[in-house]
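tool=predict chain=A
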Amino acid sequence: MLQEELSKIYLDVEKATKSYQLLCEELINKFKNKYNYDFRGFNKSLKPFREKFELDNNKLTDDWKFYFHGGDICFKNLNSGQIVDVNLKYEKYGVLDLWFFQCFLRTTAEFKELSKVFENNTLKLVQTLKYLRDINKLDLVNSNFKNYGFEDKFIWKNRV
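tool=predict ok
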């Protein structure tokens, strides 16, 4: 990717990574508070909660529904259609799984135009994320399941 093209989009991508991580954390916290369940305990079963999920019709709030898949959790906004898929195999929430992040971009009104830049071009997204890492805007985080083939992924570098 050309440096000129990168300089036009990297600030928008940084903003999107921040928005994605903060929303992931917010939704996970809502889930944790509603069900008194913390995903960070990997030996804990969701089985005791399944009946409650069914009674709630998998609704986290009036606006958000959720479902589990492949060890991860997907939240869908019932009003906007926004999808926030959260990878649960990392110590932090909001790691940038390329598929999950592209879906977030496509379904988030604020980032819909940005998503078109990366449509059918995952390599361009990877190059942009690497650039953000190189300029110290993203970190790499390790998977809790590294021994099972899950690689390190990027995450927005939270600056407080």
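The helical segments are 3-35, 50-55, 98-107, 112-118, 122-134. Residues 3-35 form the longest helix (33 residues).
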